[in-house]
Design brief:
The structure holds 2 protein chains of 2 kinds. By secondary structure, chain A is α+β, with helices and mostly antiparallel strands. Helices cover 30% and strands 12% of the residues of chain A. The longest helix of chain A has 22 residues. The chains are: A alpha+beta, B mainly alpha.
Chain lengths: 284, 511
């Protein structure tokens, strides 16, 4: 059926050689990588005694629906400016949205507007589904996103029950006159990347660095209105803080009888609490 | 069947090597469609996914659309290869044997298409191509799609295909002339046609069939989990998703196999090789699978309408009688009509290959639209907060890319049938080989030990790669413990299945 020459290509000796080479390569690589298993915990993580849990409380009884939070967020975080075109096309990027009236949804409420940042869920569905770890829970309870790591599969968008994630369907654009005023502390995101509210993490980081230099830990007063949305809210309806610190205003408000979270039946454990005198949310 | 060995000087069987005008015309048309799709993909690269019909959820759109539906569809069609191969080997259904190569090739062609269409869906496809092997996380069902489906399912099918084709490749090596001799020689991998080789192949393919079946169920279930595990998306969160995906994969896979087999039978004039009995077997399998899927659909609708949450019911209503009613009822018709036709043919004994092909083609429409019904309505109408409801309009770009991928698949089939016999050759064992002594125990022990070593190493790498990728119990787990752990996992799966090939092709000592 075949010649000896063809058979000699598949001799036992050659085969064994090839196999040994392949096994050696794999084992060598594994051995080289093994030290990573026993790598020590970074000192920065070990130094944190009581982990913070950043959270936000939004008082709907105070909210006037002015939209300042949404605008401030856009400016602070280099969110591309959009007009009617993008809004109508469904390509607008918004980290802090104001949801309009109830319509015929299952959410019945009496407030006119519902400010919606990312909920920074303790049990975040978006984190579970991200295939590359581009979004993850950090040690301070934030659901953060590494823009450069995102591959743009949009699985997190479909998984987020609050629909709080936006996608760069096209390259981000700003008016020429505006480009010089982009915030240098926040990276702009390229097309094909999902983005979301970070609770202005760059501000938290710079606050932490300042505390390191001065040796003075930041007080709750320094933190309450740290994110751009909270800072810009005229009636101070948005309060930010460490929910693990029982003395912080945010933690106290989150335990108020008026406090509730959105879609709590899903078990997502949101870090954003709403306050309202009325029983405004029927979670269907 | 083709008696290939009786006349070695005769032309190659089944039209191999002969390319008529029909081949070239089809080839040019397919290449044109392919170019159109490449143009569409380049538009996406240049301008972003804004050129598609997908939009942000909550802003009147759906973030996933035709690409994800096609991904599920392509991977679904791949069901056919393994299913038929397993039925032939495990249940010894001889009538289906001539279709094994077509079925396995269908699997090998559609799985890469499934991977490519996901790549087209990514916002940053090239970034994804490099990131996934490096840092893919088992916590995401995408990990299963990327590793189990692409690596496990594809590679096991490849091993099966390779081993099953060795004897024919050996014949081609000895009889074909021209520039492809190296290809046949490589595929034959030293196959000489001894009785021992043949027995070894029977053993290998039997055990491979057994081990591939769980891979099949896992791979199709993984796709179901992409939707089924999402609690915050009404219409998706259901334990029925995974089994539903497995059964629908069967429907589309067997249907596609009937169409492809019928076309090949007609175009290559292989009426003697592809017998109506084979098509009848497939038709019977198809109506049973459709019936099971229709049962799933009834259960799904009953559950969603009877005592479900308001939004589950809302999405179900939108599908059955609202925005998506057109798609839904087309699915019902394109499932019920073929089922009825095939059932009648099964009961009465009346057989029409053209009618079977019509049924096979019709269920493809159902498979695609049902996948769209799974993917889209839950995004446009399953909104838990007062966002405006949305619509999804399929763009020309999406159509061009998916059409191009389909054309690419057909093109691969077209090329394959011209370089290799698409129906396994039926050769009589020469008398001289029938009396050849079976190899010694020493040789057998050597082969067995190399096989066992490969299998153990493969399994170790599979478990290791999974554990290293997962990084269970540590926080924060951004990167896998060992870089490129997903690749280690994939290599493990590949090695495990390679063990079968090693068992079959490891040569004895040189004479």
């Amino acid at each position: 059926m075949t010649s000896g020459v063809e058979n000699s290509l598949w001799t036992r000796k050659r085969f064994a050689k090839a196999l040994a080479l392949a096994v050696g390569t794999v084992l060598g690589y594994a051995a080289k990588a093994f030290p990573a298993v026993t790598a020590p915990v970074p000192p920065a993580l070990a130094a944190i005694k009581r982990p913070r849990h950043w959270g936000m409380v939004i008082d709907l009884d105070l909210c006037t629906g002015c939209g300042a939070c949404s605008v401030a967020c856009k400016v602070e975080n280099n969110v591309p400016m959009t007009g009617n075109d993008e809004t109508h096309q469904g390509t607008e990027i918004e980290w802090m949205s104001l949801l309009p009236g109830p319509g015929d949804s299952t959410v019945h409420r009496r407030a006119d507007m519902l400010p919606m940042p990312c909920m920074h869920c303790g049990n975040a569905p978006c984190v579970k589904v991200c295939p590359v770890g581009a979004t993850y829970k950090n040690e301070e309870g934030l659901t953060v996103q590494i823009w450069d790591r995102c591959i743009g599969c949009r699985y997190c968008m479909t998984a987020c029950p609050y629909s709080r994630r936006s996608f760069n369907w096209a390259p981000p654009q700003w008016p020429d006159s505006y480009k010089n005023y982009l915030n240098p502390d926040v990276a702009t995101r390229p097309k094909g990347v999902v983005e979301k509210c970070t609770f202005c993490y760059h501000r938290i980081r710079s606050m932490n660095e300042k505390a390191k230099v001065t040796g003075q830990p930041p007080g709750d007063e320094d933190i309450r209105y740290l994110p751009a949305c909270a800072q810009s809210c005229p009636p101070k309806a948005i309060v930010f803080g460490d929910l693990n610190d029982p003395q912080s205003l945010a933690a106290k408000l989150s335990k108020s009888s008026r406090a509730f979270t959105l879609l709590s039946h899903l078990g997502t454990e949101p870090s954003v609490y709403y306050l309202s005198r009325n029983q405004i949310i029927d979670e269907g | 069947m083709t008696d290939a060995t009786s006349e070695p000087a005769s032309p190659l069987p089944q039209g191999v090597g002969k390319c008529g005008p029909g081949f070239w015309i089809a080839g040019i048309i397919l290449l044109a469609v392919l170019s159109w799709g490449i143009y569409g993909f380049l538009q996406q690269i240049l301008h972003g996914l804004i050129v598609t019909g997908m939009r942000t959820i909550g802003q009147g759109g759906a973030a996933w659309g035709l690409y994800i539906a096609f991904d599920v569809y392509f991977i679904g069609v791949s069901f056919a290869g393994i299913a038929v191969a397993a039925l032939v080997r495990l249940l010894a259904i001889a009538d289906l044997r001539p279709l094994t190569r077509i079925a396995e090739l269908l699997t090998l062609v559609t799985l890469p298409l499934g991977a490519l269409v996901v790549l087209a869906d990514l916002g940053r496809p090239f970034h994804g191509l490099f990131s996934l092997p490096r840092v893919a996380r088992p916590h995401s069902p995408f990990f299963g799609t990327f590793t189990l489906v692409v690596a496990g399912y594809f590679f096991s099918s490849l091993v099966f295909f390779f081993l099953a084709g060795r004897s024919d490749a050996g014949w081609m090596r000895d009889h074909a002339r021209g520039s492809l001799k190296w290809f046949y020689r490589l595929w034959a991998a030293g196959y000489t046609g001894t009785r021992d080789e043949s027995e070894r192949h029977q053993r290998t393919s039997f055990w491979l069939s057994i081990f591939i079946l769980p891979v099949l169920v896992t791979a199709h279930s993984t796709l179901g989990f992409i939707f089924g595990i999402q609690g915050g998306r009404p219409g998706w969160f259901s334990a029925l998703q995974a089994p539903g995906f497995v059964v629908m994969a069967g429907v589309s896979g067997i249907g596609a196999l009937i169409v492809v087999a019928g076309l090949i039978r007609k175009v290559l004039h292989l009426e003697n090789q592809i017998r109506p009995e084979a098509i009848r077997w497939l038709g019977n399998m198809l109506w049973v699978l459709i019936l099971v899927y229709l049962y799933f659909m009834v259960v799904e609708e009953l559950t969603a309408n009877y005592a479900s949450s308001t939004l589950e019911t809302h999405v179900a209503h939108e599908i059955v009688s609202g925005h998506y009613a057109g798609w839904f009822w087309t699915v019902v018709i394109t499932l019920v009509v073929p089922m009825f036709i095939l059932l009648v043919m099964g009961i009465t004994g009346f057989q029409s290959i053209a009618l079977s092909m019509f049924c096979g083609a019709t269920v493809q429409v159902a498979a695609l639209l049902k996948r769209l019904l799974i993917v889209v309505p839950s995004q446009t109408h399953g909104l838990l907060l007062p966002y405006p409801e949305g619509t999804y309009r399929i763009s020309v770009t999406e159509i061009s890319v998916t059409a191009a991928l389909t054309a690419f698949g057909v093109l691969m089939f077209l090329v394959f049938v011209k370089i290799f016999p698409i129906i396994p050759l039926d050769r009589k064992t020469p008398a001289s080989q029938a009396v050849e002594p079976v190899e010694s125990h020493r040789r057998h022990a050597l082969r067995l030990s190399i096989f066992a070593m490969t299998l153990l190493l493969g399994l170790a790498l599979t478990v290791g790669g999974l554990v290293f990728s997962a990084r269970y119990g540590t926080q924060p787990f951004l990167d896998p413990v060992v870089p490129f752990s997903p690749v280690i996992f994939i290599v493990g799966i590949m090695l495990s299945f390679s063990a079968a090939a090693i068992y079959e092709i490891v040569p004895g000592p040189m004479k």
